[in-house]
Design a protein that fits this description.
Strand content: 35-45%
Strand order of the largest sheet: 1-3-2-10-6
Order of helices and strands: HEEEEEEEEEE
Distance between the termini: 13 Å
Structural class: alpha+beta
Number of strands: 10
Length: about 140
């Protein structure tokens, strides 16, 4: 079980990523997408700030992000030994109204090739998926 100080550190790290995203997000990626910046997340297995087009703004421990469909993202972890069924993800939408939501699959999903190292993330509303920028922290 996590101690109080570790839980506080996790919450603070998630809040810092969300606040930094608001200040640093620059919009959609160009055809010449630069290498994403490293994210400072000392207590997370992986973390990333993902733009609405699926490009990575900054990350730690995330190999790639693909978009199988509108509002759907596959977040692939760098460490192939990590199993998403044993990790704890936390995701937050950026720049959106309260009617939209985000969902993270806790098991290998067919849209992402049923890979055990890849989270399936959906943004939007039921039956109306929408491309949205988000951040994800994986403990």
């Amino acid at each position: 079980m996590f101690g109080r100080s570790r839980i506080i550190a996790f919450v603070c790290a998630g809040a810092a990523i969300g606040l930094a995203t608001g200040a640093a997000w620059t919009g959609g990626a160009s055809a010449n997408t630069p290498v994403p910046a490293k994210a400072a997340t000392p207590y997370a297995q992986a973390a990333a700030v993902i733009n609405a087009d699926g490009s990575i703004n900054r990350a730690k421990g995330v190999r790639a992000v693909t978009k199988p469909a509108v509002g759907q993202y596959c977040v692939e972890l760098e460490d192939k030994d990590l199993d998403i069924t044993k990790l704890v993800p936390s995701a937050t939408l950026q720049y959106t109204s309260f009617e939209y939501g985000i969902r993270v699959s806790m098991w290998p999903h067919p849209a992402c090739g049923t890979q055990k190292d890849t989270f399936h993330v959906i943004t939007g509303m039921p039956n109306k998926w929408v491309d949205q920028a988000f951040s994800i922290v994986i403990m």
